[in-house]
Design a protein that fits this description.
single chain; alpha+beta; two-stranded antiparallel sheet
Length: about 170
Amino acid sequence: MIAAAALAGAVAVGAGGVVPDDPDEMWRDAGLRVVDRVTRADGECVSHSFGQVRELLQAVPCVALDRMLLTVTDDRGGTAVVFVAWVEFDDRDKAREFKRVEDIHGTGDITPLSGSLLRIADVPFTAHNYDSDLVDGVTVVIAEAENVAGGFTSEYLDDIAGVAVGTPRP
């Protein structure tokens, strides 16, 4: 219960736009520790997407895509894998339309980075533990979280995705 309250506080801080000097501070405040992370920057989005999201990106191309995969753990040995993507557009309306489509479950997604980059098995991302935000008017941040070990509840994984949306862009 205490960890969930701490996590909710970290989500509120992230949503308010306060970014800590140390990007891992927000995870520590949530009772989690970053174990490993990998990032990739891409100049386009279409080849890193699928479904209706891909169709939209073919018509409304992004100008930049940054993706991150990280693992976080709690003090009881639970581990989650977290995928974060920053999808940047050249126009506010394009960003809002992308977020509208992306936020509908089952419409496709940005393809997560492979777990092999973190020396873990690929974890299927279901988009059930998901959050998103529109930052700076033209960048949509999406985050998803899944269990690797332990027994994080779906609600807790949702909270983890909420923290991840506030992660500073690499």
